[in-house]
Structures are given as C-alpha cells and as structure tokens.
Amino acid sequence: MSEVYATRRSRLRDRCQASGSATALISRPANVRYLAGAAPQGSALLLGKTEDLLVCVGPPDDRSTEGRPDETLRIHNLPGAEGDPAVAAADLAAAQGGESLAVEEHHLTVARHRAIRSVVPRLRLTDLGGAVEQLRVVKDEEEISCLRIGAEIADQALGELLESILVGRTERHLALELERRLVDHGADGPAFRTSVATGPNAGRRAHRPTDRRVEEGDFLSVCLGATYRGYRCEIGRTFVIGTSPADWQIELYDVVFAAQRAGRESLTPGAAYRDVDRAARQVLDSAGYHEGLPALTGHGVGLEIDEDPQLAPAAMGKLDACVPVTVEPGVHLPGRGGVRIDDTLVVRPEADGGPELLTITTKELLAL
C-alpha cells in the first residue's frame, strides 16, 4: 500500500504546484487517511518542500483493526497531549523553507486558521479546496475490495435478522442487534447510525429508531452499513410483517422498486449525475408520488458514508468508471408508512458487465 499512498500524494502535489503552492496541509480526517493510511485521531499530514510528514498526538496504535500509517512516512509526534497537529505541521512547513501553504479551509475552524497564521506569518496561505475529495471519487480495486467485503458483512447481518422473530420487538432493539451482528462478522463498526423503522415510520430517510414495537401488517424498513478497513457501504430494504402484504403495500413497493431499478440501470460511465436522479425520480413522479421525495437519489461512498458525487436534480458532473454510489429512492406516506430500497453499486462500463451490485440481499417483497 505504500506505493499507493505515495502515488496519491504525488497526484495531489501536482495539483498544488499547478495552482502555485509547493506545500499543502491536510487536516480533514478522511483525507489524511486517504493519503497516509490509518493514523491516530486528529493527525495532520504535511506535503512539505523537502519531505512529507505525518504529525500526530501520540504514536500509532499497534492494536488498531483499521491498519497503520504508511510506513514510508516520517511521523512527527507532538510532546504532550495538548498540541494541535495542524498548527505544528504549518510550523514545520515554514522550517522547511516553504513560501506558501495550501490548507483545507472548508475543514479548518476560524480559530484554527488564525492559530496557523499566527505561527507562520510569513507563509502565504492558500485554499486547497476539495482537491483531495476530488481525487477520492474514483476508487482503485483495493478500495472497491474493502467496500465489497463491507457489503458482504452488511448482507450477512441483515439476513440473520430476517430469520429471527420480529413481532413485539422495538425498533431500537433491532437496530442494536444489527450493529452487534456487523461487528461479529468482522466489521470495524457500523458505517452510520442504523435505521430501523416500522409501521408509520417506515420509509423515512435516516429515521432514528424508537421504542415502537413491530406489529402484524407493518412495513419494516431497515438501512444499515458496515465499515471495513475504513471504507463504508450501505444497504436498505423494506419488508412486510405478516402472512401477506396489503394491496396498497404491494403497489407502493412495486413503484419504488421500479424507480430503484431505473436508477441502477442508468449508472454508466459518462452519465450525468442529475440524469441518474431523474431516471429514478420520473418513475415516482409518473405514479403520483411527487410530494416529499428525498432531495437526492444517491451519493458516493468510501472513507465517508456520504461522499461525492451527489445524485441530485441540480448536481453537475458525470460519472466515471470505478465510482461507488448508492441508489436509494423512497416514498413515505404520512401516517401509513413507506418503502425505501437502497443498494451500493460500482459504476462499470457495459463491456465489463455494467454496474457491479455490492449489496445482494433480495429485493423481493418478503412477508416476515
């Protein structure tokens, strides 16, 4: 992996130099992870004039399940536990003779930015913007492999839950059980707060589980994700509790399923982000479900659960191959419940079989 990290830093350095800055300070945790490997919390990465440095408070943890920093990087440990790695990294950049320093203004607080400026008054500070986030959009096969394993873990956890007795159990209890099962199957932890929604809560995006108990005839919608070696994926499914779904449940499910399929089928290299959103949204609109739809149909995943690209009506840009995204349309009917279907996929060209589905739990409307 050392060569991979070095190549990523080299690509970022080229971008920095093209914009007039020879050095850069990376402080956003996911970006530090992308360029330097797993590092202690709060670490900062300096792409310096003479050498690159990982500035940490405390040494790396040998017991970490998420890995260790790039072994080719020199680690600069701050004495004590009170120092600010970003401020210290800026000071080291000045000591290397740098004249300018690109920083991630979108991540730094005003106070932190002022602290950096105060220790390096002669350095010209520029904004790195979203340069690292842009590099992170297209994943290499090692990253996709981590996402694929995370998806397998999430599928396993969900599949086991569906084999258990659900009636009478609370949303909160089911969510906690799912998160325990994720860890049992090898996940670093949940990728985000697990959502379990029943009855009138079903179909709500990012619903926080309550003490409502599962009842016969309910829609049950579940959204969970696993983190594996830092990479996060997600899956969402909706089921019916009881022997057979009601007609309105079948109708609503079929519409959302058709919308999700339309979104998945539009995931081709070169497709506009907003066209993917439109493909799914048009199905829901045509069926009369145009009120209260989610703001977006999907989003990128990786070291964070919500990354670029955003598959939304006003999103600008086009998909590349090897970009993992979610497709997650849903409809919620106030007082009745609703349906969400969510998959993680990787954009692939048609010659390679089209979009690769990572989350494979059945999308059939099961009566549990």
Automatic annotation (TrEMBL):
Q: Keywords, A to Z? A: Aminopeptidase, Hydrolase, Protease
Q: List, alphabetically, the InterPro entries matched.
A: Creatin/AminoP/Spt16_N (IPR029149), Creatinase/aminopeptidase-like (IPR036005), Creatinase_N (IPR000587), Pept_M24 (IPR000994), Peptidase_M24B (IPR050659)
Question: What is this protein identified as?
Answer: Aminopeptidase P family protein
**Which segments carry the region annotation Disordered?**
189-210
- Per UniProt, residues of the Peptidase M24 domain are 146-348
Q: Name one Pfam family in it.
A: Creatinase_N
Species source reads Streptomyces shaanxiensis
Q: Mind telling me which PANTHER family this protein's record contains?
A: AMINOPEPTIDASE, CYTOPLASMIC PEPTIDASE PEPQ-RELATED
Q: The Creatinase N-terminal domain covers which part of the protein? A: 8-138
Q: Which GO terms describe its molecular function?
A: aminopeptidase activity
